[in-house]
């Protein structure tokens, strides 16, 4: 089955907005096992859109279009698709009611006249209710070809796709797809592939695919079967084997959980509290922890100690340590973590000190050198990295490694083991 | 002049990477005054790529292609374009030397044989040296049509475009383009348009275009003339008029300066130091300040006081204040800022306390309610916002407003005026 994506909108052609819908839809289609050979963007122009849609309908089995479904004269996607597919536009009472309700709920006094444009649908179309906006989505089927028309705003598109389009596409494939994403921290993409190469190459159902993200790798295991239970049963043993091989590097199997959430979950589970002591990352680690809803139960306070004075005053780093080893050293990182935990009265404290550049590097301590430490109930785990990239990249990677260090320390603590890494 | 963009890469069709090059190039082409009607993505497949390129060359004057220029067998862009344009591939000594130097500089012992594939170019092509990678860019001109082949990685594409392609495109337009971006903080896009509508609608040279960003609006003024000096002379009076109308809301005219850089620049200029006292933003403001190279001269320390205890202990917020007004209140924000400045020994301290949700909101204090304060040499400026959106959006907007509050306070201080906003 071949799918083509058509993005509609002059604002995309002008570079006013970044088209991220395409990546989202492409990833979902790949997961469904569809072939995708073309993605096209076209503006709000009837003639050019008609040509693009006709070409797409001709060369693909399914065309997914985004954008151009709104109430203005520029919104032409429905009209163009109806013409290309040879379907007549008719008034749809269900959609009319939905739009009336939308306006009612949003406390408009009167419905602007142009909004009634949205109440017509190609005869025989399947209407996809829009629970996050006005314009409904549509599925048109004719002569073995399918066009799926979706609203452009991601806040409307994503839920509509997840809840209504993905299940429809599964039925088109006569298959149930079940996928599980294992999120892996502490290994690069090629390292993960090396460890799993026999599974990746040898498997056709489920399939395994890796996605490189900043500081982590996502491994998606996808199985298809004639019913969801059977597909899930195919995924599970492979997921278990991956976890056996990768060990603690797998930080979650929950698609919605990001690294800081895993840290907060582990802290909560073990009844631990945390604080942060940051230099070059300047509060990025604490900001990530506070990003987790409910972080207030485990995160107490954070120190951004950019100057040496602040490191001494707030964290009790010794002047001799700074003089002998420098601010960017394992010794300073260790004292920052221990001092931060003490000052904040927390069980855990994670510290970072490093050279994010662009200036300040030396032959001995080049830009990208970052030390970090995790103190946990008086013990300290230390780590040293030499990162590449610009200031932003170095800081981002530092944050991921520091969160991962805290995570691995809590895991070790929970098992009654020594903290991982070099001991202070 | 019509331009079409062709992105080459199966990884884009599979959703493995987000294609941000397209927005970058589209924005540049819009700035140059080109018309763009189509953007197409195609995979690393000879036949399909040939069809896409032939269509593009047929319907556009200039086709800009990105990706597929590397050394592997999958990299076919150059071969396809040469065939479509009817040009013969020949060995290019200059490119061969460049690639030898690249390997030499990157301390490879031997050059892998497949890399010599990159040394051929279509006869008569203009070679664009790649200073950030191996594969050169190419400009092919034949029969009134132009194909511009650029490497896919943004770190190679952007500098090559800025330094070599943009000037080439200017010559194609027989014009020099000069543009200036004014970055505006504190007004929404529609407010900015309202204040400048006569300039936006009435001007054809220069043109004015607004771009909405998170918490700010960028206004681009672009003029064309037969030489750069004349174009700049057209931009300047309009920029001056915009600044006259928008006042302090314009925080920079420097394309490369972002909001936190403007704050650090102003602090440095006035010999002031700063600290931060954050609750719901959890260190995001300090992280932004530390993001500025050289921030260590003005930023001393930051406090992330998520718990009430931390607010009292680290910032000296009074227990009575928290009891009477609550942690999310103007009173607490003011005491946080004054206490932070005192504790850190800085001239300025900016504080934020708010409800980022998703839980914790009440009828009186709903999610999205954020108070912030800027203390400057003992004076305090306060601000209250009711933000919309999810936790992330509320936090992001809070950070922008807090940085902007600090900026406006420093501006007022520099002019010997009272701090702006509601006085404590």
UniProtKB/TrEMBL annotation, chains A, B:
The domain of life for this entry's organism is Bacteria
MoaB/Mog domain: which residues?
4-172
Q: Which InterPro entries match?
A: CinA, CinA-like_C, CinA_C, CinA_KH, Competence-induced_CinA, MoaB/Mog-like_dom_sf, MoaB/Mog_dom
The record's section on CDD domains has: cinA (cd00885)
HAMAP family attached here? CinA_B
| Family statement drawn from the similarity comment of this UniProt entry | Belongs to the CinA family.
Q: What is this protein called?
A: Putative competence-damage inducible protein
